[in-house]
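fyi for ur records
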Amino acid sequence: MRIGILGLGRIGAFHAETLSGLDAVGSLVVSDPFTHAAKAAAERFGAEVADSPEAVLAAGVDGVVVAAATDAHPALILACAEAGVPVFCEKPVARTMAEGVQVLKAVEGLDVPIQIGFNRRFDAGFVAARAAVRGGELGDLHTVRSTTLDPAPPPAAYIAASGGIFRDCSVHDFDIIRWVTGREVTEVYAVGGNRGADFIREAGDADTTGAILTLDDGTLAVVSNSRHNARGYDVRMELHGFRDSIAVGLEDKLPLRSVEPGVAFPAGTPHDFFMDRFTAAYRAELTAFTEVVSGSRPSPCTVADALEAGWIAEACTLSLHEHRPVTVEEVRHA
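which gave:
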């Protein structure tokens, strides 16, 4: 099949490399406002260069991967959907929830599959955790812990436009909690602090946060996030039930050092970035998109799915700023 890629920055180039290695993908058509990025991808992966999103759609593509800047997501999703071309778009759907809702309403009447990029749904550990929970191996859950710790903050320009740590980082925890447990979040309480980069504080954001989520069956989920983790990129989940407890990410590349006498775990080189932690997950995610394009499976993460994680992020952002519990329904109907 023929796949278009819109946006050839860090993640777009990474997706181009992944797609070029998939058996189902025969050719790539790439486009980026920075023509040197598109040309570099074309030279590296044997792709065809198009000078605009419209030209990509006119090039006979079977599906399109959107890896452009967030502000461009709504228009590009709609352009693909209105052209009848299946689309994969990196999260978020849009910069604001209001825009995201508009996208959802616009595509509801179109019979075109749209997949939003939440890669943890395709990580082997999280897939196994979901199967254990859904299969009843843990019994009823009482506690979930989800962690995302970045090795260092992104650039100041990114922070200023990101919408905050809950919207651009924690949202992955929120999505995977929903996906693994099969439960919805009803209420949140969030706190945060700044012990590191001044530009994060100046942007009105926090560099380290904690949030307690109450799920609709009473299970408590504790989410921990930070822009500063000197040992590496740390993504984990614990699920504790009345029959058993399991963990995702408890492996030799875990960026955490044990000081227990005689304990050699973890013994591997710590993960240093999301691309090495989730290389296999990204490949599985884009393989799934080729199956969506071929019509052999429905979208594994719809626009509606992505917006649910976004509402949790909105509630946490409000809770952080107002120092109070916030229900998801409050922000949904604000």
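The chain has two domains: 2-112, 121-277+309-332. thats all i got for now
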